[in-house]
Amino acid sequence: MAQALAVGDDGRVVAPVVTSLGHAGLRIDAPHLTMLCDPWMSPGGAFLGSWFPFPDNSHLRRADVLSADWVAISHEHLDHLDLDLLRELPERVRLVVPRYPAPEMTRRIRAAGIRNVLIELGSWERLALNDRGDWVTVIQELSPMCHDSAILVVAAGHAILHTNDARLSVAQLRRAAQEAGRPLDLMGVQMSGASWHPICYEYPPEVVASIGADKRIGKFKAVSRLLRAAPPRVVMPYAGPPCFLDPVLAHHNERMAPPGIFPDTAQAAAFLRSRLPGMAVEALMPGDRIDVGTGVVDRDPRWDGFSLAGSSPDGTLDTGLPDTLRDYLRQYAERRAAEVAAVYAANPDPPRGSGLAQRFADHFTELGALSDYFLHRIGMTVRFVVAGDDGGTWDVELGPSRCRVDLTGSTSHPGYQITVEARWLDAVLMGRVRWEDLFLSLRISAWRDPDRYNDYLVGLLKHADAGALAAVESFEAERNPNDSVVLTEGGHGWQVSRYCPHAGEDLTHGAVIRDGVLRCLGHNFDFDLATGECLNARCDPLVTRPLGSPAVAR
Ligand code: FES
Description:
The chain has 14 helices and 32 strands. By secondary structure, it is of the alpha/beta class. The protein folds into three domains: 322 residues, Ribonuclease Z/Hydroxyacylglutathione hydrolase-like (Metallo-beta-lactamase, Chain A, 4-Layer Sandwich); 116 residues, Nonspecific Lipid-transfer Protein, Chain A, CATH 3.30.1050; 69 residues, Rieske [2Fe-2S] iron-sulphur domain (Rieske Iron-sulfur Protein, 3-layer Sandwich), CATH 2.102.10. Strands 9-8-7-5-4-3-18-19 form an eight-stranded mixed beta sheet, with no helix packed on it. It has a seven-stranded mixed beta sheet with strand order 10-11-12-13-14-15-17. A five-stranded mixed beta sheet has the order 22-21-20-23-24. A hairpin with a 2-residue loop joins strand 12 and strand 13. It is globular and about 75 Å long. FE2/S2 (inorganic) cluster binds next to loops.
């Protein structure tokens, strides 16, 4: 890859070159540094054969592209932590990962047989990458409920922020530039949702469309606001969407078109260009390279004649994906059919008498002993409808103060219901995947009543670790409700707690108000400004006080 480096008049390399590896994967080539960030290329995809890189990046899975001194992995999601790929790296390659409150990510790496040197970094802790002044740090999301991190690399005097899935606050973004000692030269931003809500929920189609549209535009706007507050020199939408090559999931590919929650990078780039005129916006295809010094992009000829949905010459997206893209996805699915079949073979339907129900009960008994704090805040019964020879309808009462499994499924009013095939549930119970992997696989359906997100339920399942849950409890206990900020809408003003009761977003910059409802842009929780109540999630209320007269504009 060295031939891609920009050289000055004196023949010396002057700036890093970043190559898109597809999805959130990056390769950084600098005069004294080669680093990969979140390379995801294994042919089996991720999340139980559900997600695959879009478009296909397999042409980059070759030694000259993957040869590097360092690999930085942002978090444990399998579209970032490609264990099969990491297993093939030479032993000399050093791995850099964030230090999260639970050791799950490092456990997964070691359990996969990866023995490379593994360096864990705390937020803002710098690691020198050589003796030429290049360094890396990680920036974790504010709340330990979310184990997501951006990675900041400073190489050859240039700053590259690999934001991937991390939702940084304005303050964090500004500090990143401060730490780098210059405006960020290149910033990757994720603008395509990766959530099972609303698409796995048993809503009528029009409700899925409405929530999806809201999420799509909400994400676009949140990223635009962040960029406006701390503009990088070049912004690069990336890190999604994935595509779905298992025929039973292929309908989710249609969600790339509006109002779906999986807009492609061309749509994201078009939005940013319209909202942020003057900012350089570059969407890279796998194999495209950008000179971080000049901003000049060198396109991979492989994509000549290929169009993403958002840049298709076939017309508008009003009627869904262009036929050319559907053909592309069909052919891609044919190439991966064996890998998808292998996932089913590796996760067979447990036969009658396999003991699935008892494994389920034991699993939740263990989970229920991890944190009273979480149990108290979950406070509901979750019903699992498990399809398969050894399935059944099983209820789990989670809190307050107890966890009780009822294998007769006799609860009259469960607050949440998850329907899942026994083969995928057993993959979780046997430790082949984790709950969040299952949810992200989209191989479930769900409903809830009331229709409110329960962050603590998802948190308990996804972390399943006493240390990780205790870290959330400490973080939430240490918040100072007396730290407040004045916000206004029209002629009304409210004094509200400065930091969001969910995950600590600074509402000075991270909120919008409409019709007396404050939306925190951290994760789009809505708070009634009259009562402070969270309207769409299980969350502590916002401390709020109406002001008698119009307050000072923020
Ligand atoms: S920080 Fe998550 S909604 Fe506010």
